[in-house]
Design goal:
Number of strands of chain A: 3
Distance between the termini of chain A: 23 Å
Number of domains of chain B: 3
Low-confidence stretches of chain A: none
Oligomer: heterodimer
Largest sheet of chain A: 2 strands, antiparallel
Structural class of chain B: alpha/beta
Strand content of chain B: 5-15%
Shape of chain B: elongated
Helix content of chain B: 55-70%
Strand order of the largest sheet of chain A: 2-3
Mean pLDDT of chain B: 83
Structural class of chain A: alpha+beta
Helix content of chain A: 40-55%
Shape of chain A: globular
Order of helices and strands of chain A: HEHHEHEH
Chain lengths: 94, 665
C-alpha cells in the first residue's frame, strides 16, 4: 500500500487524508501512519510553516502571526522520485 | 531483580506510565556516549522488586535516529526480562508498527493499551481478546494518567516473566522475501552475531547500515557474503517490508478495532470538492475575503474614527493641560499632545477595527479554510509558471513582510526563493491597515469592505504579475513541485481565535509603543524646528523636506507636503504614515481630527491613488534590511526599494490620471 500511497500523493492535486482513506479503503489513522512512515524513510518530506517559530525573529512583534500559519506541505524527495520512476518502468516494461 | 523496559511511540503516555509505576523512586541520567536522557526506576509488587527502564520514544526500531538505536540496543543487549510496549489506543494502527518489530525481535512483550478513556470518548472500541490472539501478545487496557489498569498490567507482567512464554509473531513478507529471509537466517544462525537471526535477516533486507556493518564484522565466508550482497542494494526491500507490516496490522485491526465513520471527514471532502474546484475555487476565495472585510466594517462601523478617536482627543487635551498646570515648558505639552498622542493615537484609534479583522481571520484559519485558499492560489501560481509554495510566505507577509521574507527559506530552489523575496513587499502588511482605514473612514465609509478587498487583491495581483515577469526574465528555470495537505474542517474555538487576534494586535501595539513612538518623536523635532517659524508648517524642517519631495507625487494627485512626509516616514515603518499625518494635521489645527483633516486635504480619487501608493511603494527599512540579509546582496535590497517605488508611483499616477480623464477628479 505504501508504494501506492506514495504514488497517490505524487499524482494528487493535494493530500487529504480522509480522501486517501476512502481511496485505499483504510481508516484515516492508517493513512496517517503510512504517510508518517514514508516521511520517516525519507520518501516524502513534510514542511510545516509552524517551523517559522525557529526563525530568529523572536524580538519581532509579529512573531505570533508567522508561527500560526496553518500550512503543511509535502514534497516527494529524490529517493521517492527514484522509487516512483522504477515503479513506472516496471509497469511499462513489456 | 527483574528488568522491565518501557517502549512506545512519542506521546503514547510512556513516561506517565513510568511515573505511575515508580513514583518518586527513579533517577535520570544519560545513555552512554549520547545526550539522550535515560530514566530508570524501581517498584515493588507482591514482595518482589522490579527495575524499570524508560526507553526513548520511537516509532520504529530501525537505524534512522539515535533514539531508535538506543531503544533497540537496550532491548537486544540490555537483556530485559520483559518489554512493556505502551500503545496509544487512539492511534493504535500506527503504534502497532513498533509492536510488530518488537515481536519480530523474539523478546517478551506485553502491550499496555493506554489512553483508553480518550479512545472511549472518540467512540473507538476493541475486541481485545481477539486482537491479543492475532498479535501474539497479551494486551492490558490502561489509563496511565489515572492509574487505571496498572494492577492488572503488573499481574500480567509478573505472570509473563515467570511463565517464560515464547512470544513470536510471524509476518509473511511474500514468497520471494520470505525465501530470502530464510536463506539469510540460515547463514546467520551458524554465526555468533549476538542478535536474533530472523530479526537480523529482516534488517539486512531493509538495508539497515548498522546491522550490515555488524554482520560484515563477523566471520563470513566469501560465498556467505555474496549471499548477503543483495542486502546492500540501498534498502531496495525496505518499503516492501514496511508495507507488509502495515498489511499485517491492517489484517489484525480490521476485525478487532472499531471506529465510528467520521461524518466530519465526509463533509470535509464534499466541501473541498467545491471550494478547491478548478474554476469555482478562486471566486469562492475572493467572495470569502470580501465577506470578511465587509463584516469587519459592519461590526466595527460605530468604532471607526468615533469613540476611540474622541477618547484619544480628550486624553491629549487633558495631558497637555496637566503639563501646563505642572509648569512644564510649552514645547513639552506640544510634544506630548500633538507629537505622541496625536501621532501614536492616530494609529491606536483603529485598533478596535483591527481586532475585529484579525478575529475574523482567526476564524478562517482555525476552520482550516486558509489551507484551501493557499491551495487555490497554488493552482493560480502554477498556471503562471510560479512555485505555488511561494504563496505561503506571501500569506505570512500579510502580517509582516519581515517574517514573510524569512519564510522563503522553506523554498528549496533559488529561483523560487528570489522571486518570493522580491514580490513579498506587495503583500499588504498589518502596519498598512491603519492607512487604508483612515482613508476609508474619510471617503468610503459605506464601501469599506469592498475598498479593502480591492486594495489587498491589487497587492496580490501585482505580486503575481511581477513574479511572472521575474520568472521569465531574471530567474528563468524549472518550477519545483509540492503538494499541500488539506486538514479536515473544524469548528473554530474561541480560544484559538482570541489567541490569533491577540498575537497580531499585541504586536501592533508593541510597534505603536516603540517604533512609531521613536519615528514620531524624531519627526516632531523636525516639525517644530527651526525656532521662529510656524510649527508643523511648510517652513519647518519637516515641511521643507515634504515640499522637496511633494512634486514627485503631483502627477498622482497628492502633491502636498503633508502626504509627502507621511510617505517618507513610512520608509522607517509603515505605521508611521498615519502617525505622521496625525501629528502634522493635529499640530496645524489644535484638536483637529485626522479623518476630518484628510477629508479636507484629499479627494476620493487622490485618496485611492494615495492608498495604492502606500500599498505598493518601497517597503519599510526592516524589510529592506531583511532582503539584504536573506539575499546577501545590497544590490537586490536597493533594487527592491527602487522597483517597488516605481511600481507604486506608476500605479498611483495611472489611477489618478485615468480617474481624472473619466471625470472622477
Amino acid at each position: 500500500m505504501l508504494k501506492e500511497l506514495l504514488k497517490a500523493v505524487r499524482d494528487g492535486d493535494y493530500v487529504s487524508k480522509s480522501a486517501l482513506a476512502e481511496q485505499f479503503a483504510r481508516p484515516v489513522p492508517f493513512i496517517e501512519a503510512g504517510l508518517a512512515e514514508l516521511v520517516r524513510m525519507d520518501y516524502l518530506q513534510e514542511s510545516e510553516n509552524l517551523q517559522l517559530c525557529d526563525l530568529p525573529c523572536g524580538k519581532c512583534p509579529y512573531t505570533g502571526f508567522c508561527s500560526q500559519t496553518p500550512f503543511k506541505t509535502i514534497t516527494v524527495t529524490e529517493k521517492g522520485e527514484r522509487l516512483l520512476r522504477t515503479l513506472s518502468y516496471k509497469e511499462t516494461r513489456p | 531483580m527483574y528488568t522491565i523496559a518501557l517502549v512506545g511511540n512519542p506521546n503514547s503516555g510512556k513516561t506517565t506510565l513510568f511515573n505511575a509505576l515508580t513514583g518518586s523512586n527513579q533517577h535520570v541520567g544519560n545513555w552512554p556516549g549520547v545526550t539522550v536522557e535515560r530514566k530508570e526506576g524501581k517498584f515493588r509488587f507482591k514482595d518482589q522488586f522490579y527495575k524499570v527502564v524508560d526507553l526513548p520514544g520511537t516509532y520504529s526500531l530501525g537505524a534512522f535516529s539515535e533514539d531508535e538505536i538506543i531503544a533497540r540496543d537496550f532491548i537486544l543487549k540490555g537483556d530485559p526480562d520483559l518489554v512493556i510496549n505502551v500503545v496509544d489506543a487512539t492511534n493504535i494502527e500506527r503504534n502497532l508498527y513498533l509492536t510488530t518489530q518488537l515481536l519480530e525481535m523474539g523478546v517478551k512483550v506485553i502491550v499496555a493499551l493506554n489512553m483508553m478513556d480518550e479512545a472511549e470518548q472518540r467512540k473507538i472500541s476493541f475486541d481485545l481478546a481477539n486482537l491479543s490472539v492475532k498479535l501474539g501478545a497479551p494486551i492490558v487496557p490502561v489509563v496511565a494518567s489515572r492509574r487505571k489498569g496498572i494492577e492488572q498490567l503488573l499481574e500480567t507482567a509478573v505472570s509473563s516473566i515467570e511463565k517464560q512464554l515464547d512470544y513470536k509473531v510471524f509476518i509473511s513478507y511474500g514468497r520471494e522475501l520470505d525465501g530470502k529471509i530464510a536463506r539469510i537466517e540460515k547463514v546467520l544462525a551458524q554465526k555468533e552475531v549476538g542478535y536474533p537471526s530472523h530479526w537480523l535477516a529482516i534488517k539486512l533486507l531493509e538495508g539497515d547500515e548498522y546491522v550490515l556493518d555488524l554482520v560484515s564484522e563477523s566471520d563470513l565466508s566469501p560465498r556467505e557474503l555474496e549471499l548477503l550482497s543483495f542486502s546492500r542494494q540501498n534498502g531496495a526491500y525496505e518499503l516492501e517490508l514496511v508495507d507488509k507490516r502495515y498489511e499485517f496490522i491492517n489484517q489484525i485491526t480490521g476485525s478487532t478495532v472499531f471506529r465510528p465513520q467520521k461524518p466530519v471527514q465526509i463533509k470535509t471532502d464534499k466541501i473541498d470538492k467545491i471550494v478547491t474546484h478548478k474554476y469555482l475555487g478562486l471566486p469562492i476565495f475572493g467572495l470569502i475575503m470580501l465577506g470578511m472585510f465587509q463584516l469587519t466594517f459592519v461590526l466595527g462601523e460605530d468604532l471607526l474614527g468615533d469613540s476611540v478617536a474622541d477618547a484619544i482627543g480628550i486624553f491629549g487635551e487633558y495631558a497637555e493641560a496637566l503639563l501646563l498646570n505642572l509648569n512644564a515648558p510649552a514645547w513639552l505639552g506640544s510634544f506630548v499632545a500633538n507629537g505622541v498622542i496625536g501621532g501614536v493615537g492616530a494609529v491606536v484609534e483603529f485598533v478596535p477595527l483591527i481586532v475585529i479583522l484579525y478575529m475574523l481571520m482567526g476564524v478562517l484559519e482555525d476552520s482550516g479554510y486558509m489551507a484551501r485558499a493557499a491551495y487555490v492560489m497554488d493552482n493560480v501560481m502554477r498556471s503562471l509558471g510560479l512555485q505555488g509554495k511561494t504563496f505561503i510566505p506571501m500569506i505570512v507577509g500579510f502580517g509582516c513582510n519581515v517574517p514573510g521574507i524569512m519564510a522563503t527559506r522553506t523554498l528549496e530552489s533559488k529561483k523560487d526563493r528570489m522571486i518570493a523575496i522580491l514580490i513579498n513587499p506587495f503583500m499588504s502588511c498589518g502596519a498598512k491597515l491603519p492607512i487604508y482605514l483612515v482613508f476609508i473612514a474619510a471617503f468610503f465609509p459605506n464601501n469599506g469592505g469592498l475598498v479593502l478587498f480591492l486594495v489587498y487583491s491589487l497587492g496580490i495581483l501585482i505580486a503575481l504579475l511581477m513574479g511572472k515577469i521575474f520568472g521569465e526574465t531574471l530567474f528563468p528555470g524549472e518550477v519545483s513541485h509540492f503538494i499541500m495537505e488539506l486538514p479536515p474542517y473544524r469548528k473554530p474555538t474561541l480560544r484559538n481565535v482570541v489567541r490569533n487576534m491577540w498575537d497580531n494586535v499585541s504586536g501592533f501595539l508593541t510597534r505603536a509603543g516603540t517604533t512609531i513612538f521613536a519615528v514620531v518623536s524624531s519627526l516632531w523635532v523636525l516639525a517644530v524646528l527651526p525656532g521662529g517659524v510656524q510649527p508643523y508648517g511648510p517652513e519647518s524642517f519637516l515641511g521643507r523636506i515634504g515640499l522637496l519631495i511633494a512634486p514627485i507625487f503631483r502627477p498622482a494627485g497628492f502633491g502636498n507636503w503633508q502626504a509627502a512626509v507621511g510617505l517618507f516616514s513610512g520608509i522607517a515603518a509603515k505605521e508611521a504614515v498615519v502617525a505622521t499625518l496625525g501629528m502634522v494635521y493635529a499640530g496645524v489645527e489644535e484638536g483637529a481630527e485626522l479623518v476630518a483633516a484628510i477629508k479636507a486635504a484629499f479627494t476620493p480619487l487622490t485618496a485611492a491613488s494615495f492608498m495604492i501608493m502606500t500599498l505598493l511603494y518601497t517597503p519599510c527599512a526592516a524589510t529592506i534590511a531583511t532582503i539584504r540579509k536573506e539575499t546577501r546582496s545590497n544590490v537586490w535590497a536597493l533594487f527592491t526599494a527602487l522597483y517597488t517605488f516605481l511600481i507604486g508611483w506608476v500605479m498611483a499616477v495611472l489611477v489618478y490620471q485615468v480617474g481624472s480623464f473619466l471625470g472622477f477628479a
